[in-house]
Amino acid sequence: MDKMLILEDGTCFRGKAFGSLKDAYGEVVFTTSMTGYQELLTDQSFLGQMVVMTYPMIGNYGINRDDYEAVRPILHAFIVRDLCDEPSNFRMNRTLDDYLLKMDIPGLYGIDTRKLTKHIREKGAVKGCIVSSDLSLEEAMERLNAFEPFHDHIARCSIKTPFEVPGNGKRVVLLDLGMKQSILKELGAMGFHVNVVPHDTKAEEIMEYNPDGIMLSNGPGDPKDALGVVEEIRKLLPKVPVFGICMGHQLLSLACGADTRKMKFGHRGGNNPVKDLETGKIMITSQNHGYVVDMNTIEGTGLVVTHKCVNEGSIEGVRHTKYNAFSVQFHPESSPGPTDAKRIFLKFKEAMNAGGPKNA
């Protein structure tokens, strides 16, 4: 079936539909990852977005039972150059097309994704829609202009009921802001006893678990839409070690008095170089974020910058000088992507071994 992608500036790309045939609306973003599309599809940080793969051939190893980051994908559409309809992999149990059809996620292939990516880099991430090619451009633009993005991203993907993953080590309360399963797996692999709680859990309830440490997960949307969570994090900082990843990093920074801003087109991919300012070492990291902590707002917050993006100097990590708290913008659990940053989890273990608030 012929479909077209319309951007809010009127730019049109024509291609073929796969997966669900329904129309799609959302923010059009791109990722530079060359592989790991199953993990990307099920990363809840893509809620509200239509994801463009810059690598041309997608679907060549199908979908398997093991590489999910969430129970189901919640992105709004998946856009590729070439769709492989004859995948081959010993773990595969269905094709990408079959999977998106079952999950009711629209796909679009056969468009010039390189041109689309360059357009986003120049103009910034924009609203877009995937609609039937039978529509006129005027009709499509009218529908797109009527589309209103929602602002409760974290609430839409966070769990509703707490659960636990038993372990023999330190007790970690993981605040689910739209977490990737690989974060939970990494904590489990280190032997931690993990209690996963909903995003709106109060600080007092969290402390009832008697945690040795608190993990703030990744998640979708604008961090300033979750100011209620920020207030609870602020209460927790003097009491227990805190470690934030991606959205968790942004919310921790807001809780300390810093500010965040929307990026032009964000960092999404598995090849982002980050410099550890405390060691001087460079890590290649996996990232997925459209907001960043504003460098100009760090002074006076008690935060110091620990990591920077090599490409453009944005903040990739902070730590607090008074409280035992730190965070990173990238994904140290590295799924999909490189494993350079996994040692960040050891830093969390060391923070818990150190105990309460850190002295300046």
TrEMBL record:
Q: Which GO terms describe its biological process?
A: 'de novo' pyrimidine nucleobase biosynthetic process; 'de novo' UMP biosynthetic process; glutamine metabolic process; L-arginine biosynthetic process
Task: Kindly give the Pfam families that the UniProt entry links to this protein.
Answer: CPSase_sm_chain (PF00988), GATase (PF00117)
The keyword Disulfide bond is assigned to this record = no
Task: Identify the catalytic residues.
Answer: C246, H331, E333
What SMART domains is this protein classified in? Answer: CPSase_sm_chain
Domain Carbamoyl-phosphate synthase small subunit N-terminal, which positions? 1-131
Tell me which InterPro entries the record gives: Anth_synth/Amidotransfase, CarbamoylP_synth_ssu, CarbamoylP_synth_ssu_N, CarbP_synth_ssu_N_sf, Class_I_gatase-like, CPSase_GATase1, GATASE
Q: Return the Gene3D superfamilies for the record.
A: 3.40.50.880, Carbamoyl-phosphate synthase small subunit, N-terminal domain
Q: Which positions are annotated as binding L-glutamine?
A: S45, G219, G221, M247, Q250, N288, G290, Y291
**Pathway in which this enzyme or protein is active:** Amino-acid biosynthesis; L-arginine biosynthesis; carbamoyl phosphate from bicarbonate: step 1/1; Pyrimidine metabolism; UMP biosynthesis via de novo pathway; (S)-dihydroorotate from bicarbonate: step 1/3
Q: Where are the transmembrane segments?
A: none
Q: Which residues form the signal peptide?
A: none
Q: What's the family?
A: Belongs to the CarA family.
UniProt-listed PANTHER family: CARBAMOYL-PHOSPHATE SYNTHASE SMALL CHAIN, MULTIFUNCTIONAL TRYPTOPHAN BIOSYNTHESIS PROTEIN-RELATED
Biological function? Small subunit of the glutamine-dependent carbamoyl phosphate synthetase (CPSase). CPSase catalyzes the formation of carbamoyl phosphate from the ammonia moiety of glutamine, carbonate, and phosphate donated by ATP, constituting the first step of 2 biosynthetic pathways, one leading to arginine and/or urea and the other to pyrimidine nucleotides. The small subunit (glutamine amidotransferase) binds and cleaves glutamine to supply the large subunit with the substrate ammonia.
The name of this protein is Carbamoyl phosphate synthase small chain
**Species of the source:** Youngiibacter fragilis 232.1
